């Protein structure tokens, strides 16, 4: 289902520099276009500050994905 939603909406799980097109952010914000439940499943929604950290990380081109430690 997630794969179908990503294809239909042309969203990537994380699109560096584009939080508006990052499915991960859509899931934690509870965007109406998501498939399934808001994340995190079975827990309280993230706070505004926690979502801002995620949004800022995506805007910064997700540098953690490129670091040697992440490999």
List the keywords.
71 residues; mainly alpha; 3 helices; 0% strand
Descriptive overview:
With 71 residues, the protein is an all-alpha fold. The protein has helices at 2-9, 23-29, 48-59. The mean pLDDT is 81.
The percentage helix is: 25-40%
Structural class: mainly alpha
Q: What distance separates the N and C termini?
A: 28 Å
Secondary-structure element string: HHH
Global geometry: globular
- Average pLDDT value? 81
Describe the sheet with the most strands: none
Q: Give the percentage of residues in beta strands.
A: under 5%
Overall number of strands? 0
Number of helices: 3
Rg over C-alpha atoms, rounded to the nearest angstrom: 12 Å
Uncertain segments of ≥5 residues (pLDDT<50)?
A: none
SSE arrangement:
Layout (H helix, E strand, L loop, with lengths): L1 H8 L13 H7 L18 H12 L12
Give a quick precis of the structure.
With 71 residues, this protein is mainly α.
């Amino acid at each position: 289902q997630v794969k179908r939603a990503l294809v239909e909406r042309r969203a990537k799980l994380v699109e560096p520099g584009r939080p508006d097109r990052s499915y991960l952010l859509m899931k934690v914000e509870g965007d109406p276009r998501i498939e399934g439940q808001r994340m995190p499943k079975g827990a309280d929604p993230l706070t505004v500050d926690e979502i801002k950290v995620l949004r800022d990380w995506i805007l910064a081109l997700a540098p953690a994905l490129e670091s040697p430690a992440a490999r």
